[in-house]
Amino acid sequence: MLCCMPGVAFVPALLVIWSSAAFIISYVIAVLAGHVEPLVPYISDTGTKPPESGIFGFMINISALLGVITMYIRYLLIEKQNESSHFVRSSCNVLSLCIGFLGCIGMGIVATFQELSVPSVHDIGALVAFGSGVVYITLQSVMSYKSCPRWNTYFVCHIRMAISVISCIAFIPMIVFASRISMTKIDWTPGEK
To answer: Where is the CWH43-like N-terminal domain (predicted)?
Structure first.
């Protein structure tokens, strides 16, 4: 199986490195071009105006593809482990994979439809990406606990669950604050609402 091939572990590492590079490169270009303020801009703001928008869109779409590959490898790994342990229903693993793929589709939507060009589509993509991501991480954490102690250590499970809890907590204010603002431009001038 693909998940048991030597060297397949480089894919999740590549996902992290590539995604980080996407955010950092588009941020640096946006700041140097004067398109955003250097102090904590929204991620989407750093990929709204050319030339950083093209780089942002391209790199985030590659990140979404790497995310799909990573999730599929994880799915295959759990299926293989489950053959001997039967720690989780196969349908739960398939559900987790589908939710993960949905999140990657959301990432692709965010990358393709810039924040100011088609804001409603961009926002829906962001909601799908982040919402599906939180559910995917939580399902993976639960499956990790079910596979203990044979396939995971409790330390790894606790780390995964901590990330899940932090993601859930962060998702709530994201929804609240995103619903309260309607951003139609990046640049703000004193005196504006």
So the answer is: 8-183
